[in-house]
Amino acid sequence: MTLNYGSKRLDLTLQPVSGRALPVQQGEILRLTQMEEGGQCVDFNAFNLHDHKEHMEVGAIRSTTGFRPKKTDIIFSNPPRYRPMLGIIEMPPTCVTDILGRACHATLFEARNGFEIHTNCQDTLAECIAEYGLTPDDVHASFNIWMYTEWDSAGRYRNPGPNPGRKGDHVDLLAVFDILAVPATCGSDVVPTNNYSLKPIQVEVYEASKDTSNLASRIMARAGSFRNQQRVPKDFRVSKIRAERELEPVPNFKHHFINYPLRDEYFEVDIPEREYDIIKEILRTGFGTDEGDVVRRGVMGWCTVHRARSRDWAKIPLGWL
């Protein structure tokens, strides 16, 4: 299937150590393209254009995309809404992504390299969103595009080598609903993130077409129709956004936790002697604290594998592209 885009309505170049906050409407395509010799990392934020408290949340999607989102993956907004926000329509193999590391920040360069003033993605993103009245505190964990990193089993994090992005490589992101997209060129020049050379990035926006509008609607129907995703601010117990910085408790406040307090119910399970011997043997291996715990872990582990819904709902079927 060929996905036809609408007309190009925006074409600009993000110079090194800069960025822009750009409204992208539902069904529109945001394209990011490597220029010059390539190898330039892009740090990306996104907000609901009509409610800035709903924004992209890369930490919440790690269980569905892993640490490296790729083509057909869906980027969701922050819980409690957790709605499909962006669909990755195109992404070349040379684009390594990373949602484990956060955007670099000024203190990092000061503490590590002794630079009291140094370009950094946190401040660049903050300057971008300032145009819309948002503060540096509104910058959230970034979707790092063309960021070649790795980590080992001990949790050590590093740049293993040159950024493999090539000139002309592009990433296409579909807006599933109206967003404020914030791409910024990474300003880290003391590690291999940008191959020790800061370059521009081309940014294009394509208008919604029948194909892309239909795709956005299908993604929302497939991945955004769960009951809990329909919550809006008026459904929140506290819906007014606090303006004061100082925190004080609400007078006479009482917590209303979900399903609290918990109630335990006990019931007996008849287990044949042969199976009970197996349970005791499993217990001796250290799997569980007692026979009941072995049974509980076994049953719940089986249910997780065989009864839980697959994670395909959080991806775009290839046949749709």
Compact overview of the structure:
The chain has 321 residues and is of the alpha+beta class.
Number of domains: 2
| Number of helical regions | 6
- Helical residue percent? 10-25%
Rg over CA atoms, rounded to whole Å, is: 24 Å
Estimate the global geometry from the Cα principal axes. globular
Main traits of this protein?
321 residues; alpha+beta; 2 domains; six-stranded antiparallel beta sheet; five-stranded antiparallel beta sheet; 13 strands; 20% strand; globular
Description:
Helices cover 20% and strands 20% of the residues. The chain has 321 residues and is of the alpha+beta class. It folds into two domains: 8-236, no CATH class; 273-308. A six-stranded antiparallel beta sheet has the order 1-13-3-11-7-6, covered by helices on one side. Strands 2, 4, 5, 8 and 12 form a five-stranded antiparallel beta sheet that branches. A two-stranded antiparallel sheet has the order 9-10. A hairpin with a 7-residue loop joins strand 6 and strand 7 (84-90). The longest helix is centred in the last third of the chain and has 16 residues, at 291-306. It is globular, with a radius of gyration of 24 Å. The model has no long low-confidence stretch (mean pLDDT 94).
